[in-house]
Amino acid sequence: MSLARTQSISLQGLRGELVDIEVDVAHGLPSYSLLGLPDAALNESRDRIRAAISNSKLQWPNKKVTVSLSPAWLPKSGSSFDLPIAIAILLAQGLVERDEDKKRVLIGELALDGGVKPVRGVLAMVIAARDRGIKEAIVPLSNFGEASLIRDIDVVAVASLGDAILWISTGQKIEQPQLSIVMEEQSSCDMSDVRGQDSAKFALTVAAVGGHHILMMGPPGTGKTMLAERFTTIIPPLSDDAAIEVTAIHSIAGYVSQRGLMMTAPPFIAPHHSTTVVAMVGGGSRTIRPGACSLAHRGVLFIDEAPECASGILDSLRQPLESGIASISRAHGTVTFPAKFILILAANPCPCGRFAGRGRACECSSLQVRRYMNRLSGPLLDRIDIQIRVEPPTRAAMSDENKEESSKTIQRKVLEARERAKARFTQFPFTLNSEIPSELLRTEFRAEKSAMNHLHQLLDEEAITARGFHKALRTSWSIADLKSLPR
Known about the structure:
By secondary structure, the protein is α/β, with parallel strands linked by helices. The protein has helices spanning about 40-45, 45-55, 80-95, 120-130, 145, 160-170, 200-210, 225-230, 240-255, 275-280, 290-295, 320-325, 365-375, 380, 395-400, 405-425, 440, 450-460, 465-480; strands at about 5-10, 15-25, 30-35, 65-70, 105, 110, 115, 135-140, 155-160, 180-185, 215, 260, 270, 280-285, 290, 300-305, 325-330, 335-340, 340-345, 385-390.
């Protein structure tokens, strides 16, 4: 029989699709045809696969070889199809015994000597395979750590094409590495490192309780960056499902360690202000990678010196901030990555940074100050729940010998406040105050009459927008939860 079939996974964002790889070895002039929307890396697979088969002491068919990847409409990218194509070619020649009943996927890039190299996104691929009823995944040895994080699917690690053939033909495994799940090391930073700044710490605590976005404005050297870097130490660690999801995104970006490192702490992503829109939101020509906002999913995206960002960088975050999803559209379709993060912006009040500072003379004209602050667009600021001013710490705060409140203490308060909110949301599909739908803020979670009247007056005066109206109510609920108030 000259027809054989294997299966693999093609990633479209975080979602994986099952791909059938069919190989037909027929009489005719020696040739190799690859069908089914392959990208450049896949088109180059012929020479890699041929060399790998030959150097594994096996025979390349001196016939007409046709490889079909279906569904044909689905774009396929990357070198992870090398191993399943090679096995299908060997199956079609009868060089590997068939096991038609086994639901398995094969993932891996082939080296010229027959070795199996690691690929990006294995964790997301194995999750997709499990969700589609696949019982076994053959992965590169170097990817075994991340693949083994997934339960309910057998993961077989192979170091070479020969190892894969041996397992498929006889069920004999090479020695599998003994791995334990390695948790991400916790940050050594602590909120107690920051002297003074009680109001800024309170604002960050409120943001941690409700998942609110925050802008910190102040002169250089006031501790804005220190506060932001320690924010992840006061928010709760990731749940098991969230940790797997976050690790899968970082696996696609190629940032997961070969040791099977699972990200249990919320990620902290801090792109430089000179970054590009593609680096911020994600993109690429054929192989689309997640950007900074998706890498910060369920964690923190911190942008220092926010007004220094190039035009369009900050505004590209408006859609992810609103929907929690980063959408990248290309000619062949739209790819989405989850991007539900807490945004922290830090900014100086003017180009020199000394505007309205105590005892410092600002060198900027009023026009320069206005132009500088206009780089933060109104629509973006409207999506920021909390805006605070961070002043330099006083002499008394710097000389105070009393120990500052630690991250553990603040985190305990945040956890208690989130539990109060969670108890209030038992009948609803959300857990954070920042996720309360606007219609419920007018009914189930309506504020007291005096507060609503004040907000309505501000709305009539156009001092706030409708979005700002709802964000004020959501932030108020977080403050109430933090202070153990019923409303």
